[in-house]
Amino acid sequence: MKKFLRKIVTLPIRFYQLTISPLLGSNCRYQPTCSNYMIEAIEEWGIFKGLWLGIRRISRCHPWGGHGHDPVPKKERKKEEE
């Protein structure tokens, strides 16, 4: 069920990537692009925190903001004890 909801939430982002983004050209100052970052954040952290991380990233993407490689933070995985 979670995967299904995440796919539904990312549909508008994918629509943007396929239709609007090609018309605007490559304007994102970061790698991965802001739209890819948001999709990755939703897949890694879930809908609410992923959207929050994506919105924060988009707010930093401006001429006076940063640039370069800015990956989605990874969750700490608990190591399985052997």
Helices and strands, with pairings:
Elements lengths: L1 H23 L5 E2 L2 H12 L1 H14 L7 E2 L13
Parallel strand pairs: 1-2
The helical percent reads 55-70%
State the low-pLDDT regions, or none: none
Q: Strands of the largest sheet, in order across it?
A: 1-2
Strand content: under 5%
Radius of gyration: 14 Å
- The shape is globular
CA(first)-CA(last) distance: 31 Å
Can you count the beta strands?
A: 2
Mean pLDDT metric? 90
Major beta-sheet overview: 2 strands, parallel
Total discrete domains: 1
Structure notes:
With 82 residues, the protein is mainly α. It is 60% helix and 5% strand. It has a two-stranded parallel ribbon with strand order 1-2. Helix 1 (2-24) runs antiparallel to helix 2 and helix 2 packs antiparallel against helix 3 (47-60). The chain is globular, with a radius of gyration of 14 Å. The model has no long low-confidence stretch (mean pLDDT 90).
Descriptive key words:
82 residues; mainly alpha; 5% strand
Gist?
The chain is mostly helical and about 80 residues long. It has helices at about 1-25, 35-45, 45-60; strands spanning about 30, 70. A two-stranded parallel sheet has the order 1-2.
